[in-house]
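re: ur question from yesterday

yeah so i grabbed the chain u mentioned. its 148 aa long if i counted rite. heres the sequnce exactly as i have it in my notes:
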Amino acid sequence: MATLLTPRSRRSAGADSTRLVVPPGFRTALGCDAVGVPARYGFRILSRLPAKGCVYADTDWWWWLVPTGSDLELTWPMPACYAPGAEIPDRRPRLIHRPDGTSPYTPPIPLYLLCCQLTGTAPSWTLFPTQSDGVMSEHVHPSGPDRP
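ran it thru and got these structure tokens back, copy pasting raw so excuse formatting
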């Protein structure tokens, strides 16, 4: 587990990890990362998500496939764990939810907000400048309005 929390550049595939395998027939053009939560949150998150992708579970953790880069600008709350490349600790997870359609992904923003809600953590992501009608502004989301 400690390797999952280290920066991407310092991580390497090891014998104690496994990459979640996307079932045949799904389109993965966006790449695959995974978000894991302790099993005690699994059913609550699964039942509250408006759209669900592939979900894997073992006795201790549940994992949702998300598009690559779903950690950019977001700080996933502890104890959630973000796994680039869908490389997770090898605990022999099995596919427990297979979505209809051809996308294996769970939309990351609803998943992120549910993780925050269940862990009692305020959502937090980086401010980013945008340009609208030639005026630069910073959007503060979700807790505040746009500031000109």
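noticed a couple things. The chain is about 15% helix and 25% strand. also The helical segments are 39-48, 108-119.
anyway ttyl
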